[in-house]
Specification:
InterPro entries: Initiator_Rep_WH1, WH-like_DNA-bd_sf, WH_DNA-bd_sf. The protein has 281 residues and is of the alpha+beta class. The protein is 36% helix and 23% strand. The protein has 2 domains: 155 residues, Arc Repressor Mutant, subunit A (Orthogonal Bundle); 103 residues, Arc Repressor Mutant, subunit A (Orthogonal Bundle).
């Protein structure tokens, strides 16, 4: 049986690739957010993949054979070694995920194509050249729905579960008159990236994945959320509801100031005008 098409959030009549990506932002096609089979992707790899998508984003992103370049320094963050970046890149090249298409069908696809690492002199690697996997290009070309992710928020997450939940909600936050989405428990486990055979009981899932993810999203994102049980089959939890709501401007200002103190190198010196404009608009 094919999965049902997903709800729409940010929708572009000209396609996702025609959207305008602001500085410090990642426009991520919806098809790459709720995927299955990515449980081995680490937090670092998830963050780096978003950076690679942001760096490649544009109207020619789905062109076959297109190469992109990005300095290793941008991918390292505060780390001085390239080891973690190299491991993440190899992981992304080897990982095959199950992507749900807009028509409800499923496609198995690698997240990243060929890569080259350039070194100038005897020092550490300085530049990454990469391609998106050819099987990914039709998905990017046909995508009509996307999420707007903030790079400074992505850098604030300490768990991959929190980052995954942030993306799940960011994809839907633009929906009007829709403030929750129900997921089968196993489905949400996959979307959060819980490894198979881990956190088997719901108590463990809630304590180790759901509660930390909700706490991180509520601390970092411009919206708040909660996850509630909405269906049981005997003693088994079969369905969960993810609910979300925008924070007030004052709440966002306080949050922005708190996070700026912890991630000053990622923040502009003034409160982003778009924050107030988007909430008041």
């Amino acid at each position: 049986m094919r999965d049902e098409p997903r709800p729409k959030s940010h929708h572009s009549n000209g396609g996702t690739l025609s959207a305008f990506q602001r500085h410090g932002e990642v426009i991520k096609p919806a098809e790459l957010i709720e995927v299955r089979g990515g449980e081995k992707i680490t937090l670092a790899a998830r963050r780096i993949y978003n950076q690679l998508l942001s760096n490649a984003f544009g109207p020619h992103m789905a062109a076959e054979g297109q190469e992109y370049r990005i300095p290793f320094a941008e991918l390292r963050g505060n780390h001085t070694s390239n080891d973690r970046v190299t491991e993440a890149i190899l992981s992304l090249m080897q990982t095959v995920v199950r992507v749900r298409m807009s028509d409800g069908s499923t496609r198995n696809v690698h997240l990243l194509g060929p890569t080259d690492i350039e070194k100038f002199g005897p020092g550490i690697a300085t530049m990454l050249t990469y391609e998106l996997h050819p099987k990914l290009l039709p998905i990017l070309r046909d995508s009509q729905i996307f999420a707007r992710l903030e790079m400074q928020i992505l850098h604030g997450f300490a768990t991959k579960y929190g980052m995954a939940l942030y993306e799940i909600i960011a994809k839907r936050i633009g929906l009007k008159h829709v403030f929750y989405n129900d997921f089968e428990t196993e489905e949400l486990r996959d979307y959060l990236g819980v490894p198979e055979g881990k956190l088997v009981s719901f108590a463990a899932l809630r304590r180790k994945a759901i509660e930390p993810a909700v706490a991180e999203v509520n601390m970092l994102a411009p919206f708040s959320c909660r996850i509630d049980v909405v269906e049981k089959l005997g003693r088994k939890i079969t369905k969960l509801r993810v609910s979300w709501w925008l924070k007030t401007v004052d709440e966002q200002k306080a949050q922005w100031q708190a996070q700026k103190g912890q991630q000053g190198d990622l923040f502009s010196p003034a409160l982003p005008e778009t924050l107030v404009e988007e909430l008041d608009g």
